[in-house]
Amino acid sequence: MEKNIELLRAEKISYSVPGLSRKVLEIRSLSVRKGTAVFVLGRNGAGKSSLLSFLGGYVSVPGACISWKGKELMPVSDRLIPGFQEMAMVKQNPDLSPFLRVEEELLKTVRHLPDSLQQKKLREMIRLCHLKELLPQKTGNLSGGEKRRVALAQALMLGTELILLDEPFSDLDSENRLLFYPILLRAMQEKKIGFIVVSHN
């Protein structure tokens, strides 16, 4: 079945902080399939964000390898632009333009597409991520949880099959937590998106 397609596999991930002999992060193998989520749990300082930076193609880990649908990806050191276009990352503190309205911020993500397709994707994200009430607000006035919902919508609009989430549930109020979980479930069920989620909780 299509859902069982392995999107990403990473092996021999071993990471230590310069100056420390002990390994902060050591994972023999990690994989995620289409329409599923993998959770990586660990205390603060355990290297979870470093893991996402490696998986997303922003830092290199000597000796580690990462493949996408069975094909090994080019190492970060050999790439002119960091990051893998096959996946998107949603940071704990998203980089949103504070003076743009939410609708403008979302459309900025797909401005290279025809207007009709932009509007189609926008409508889909309004429904999927519960953004109708937020559209006229400036992103600088949003709460942390609302910003993460907007950033997740941006990642989904890109059309990537895998999204990396860095501490998506930290400091969420009850309302945003109740909204965030179903969004992930619907994205997995409806769009067959794969997720790798790192969290201390």
Please render the helix and strand layout as text:
Blueprint: E1 6-15, E2 25-33, E3 37-41, H1 48-55, E4 65-68, E5 71-72, E6 87-90, H2 102-109, H3 115-128, H4 144-157, E7 162-166, H5 174-191, E8 194-199
Parallel strand pairs: 3-8, 6-7, 7-8
Antiparallel strand pairs: 1-2, 1-4, 4-5
Helix pairs in contact: 2-4, 3-4, 4-5
Fold and architecture overview:
Helix 2 runs parallel beside helix 4 (144-157) and helix 3 crosses helix 4. The radius of gyration is 17 Å and the shape is globular. By secondary structure, the protein is an alpha/beta fold. A four-stranded antiparallel β-sheet has the order 2-1-4-5, with helices on one face. The protein has a four-stranded parallel β-sheet with strand order 3-8-7-6, with helices on both faces. 31% of the residues lie in helices and 22% in strands. The chain is built from five helices and eight strands. Helix 5 links the parallel strand 7 (162-166) and strand 8 (194-199). 32% of the residues are buried. The model has no long low-confidence stretch (mean pLDDT 87). The chain has helices at residues 48-55, 102-109, 115-128, 144-157, 174-191; strands at 6-15, 25-33, 37-41, 65-68, 71-72, 87-90, 162-166, 194-199.
Summarize the structure.
The chain is α/β, with parallel strands linked by helices and 201 residues long.
Radius of gyration: 17 Å
Low-pLDDT segments: none
The overall strand count is: 8
Average pLDDT reading: 87
The total of helices stands at 5
Instruction: Please report which band the strand proportion falls in: under 5%, 5-15%, 15-25%, 25-35%, 35-45% or over 45%.
Output: 15-25%
User: Outline, from the CA principal axes?
Assistant: globular
Major sheet strand order? 2-1-4-5
In whole angstroms, the N-to-C terminal distance is 32 Å
User: What class do helices, strands and sheet pairing give?
Assistant: alpha/beta
List the helices and strands in order. Answer: EEEHEEEHHHEHE
Major sheet: size, sense and barrel closure?
Answer: 4 strands, antiparallel
Relative helix content: 25-40%
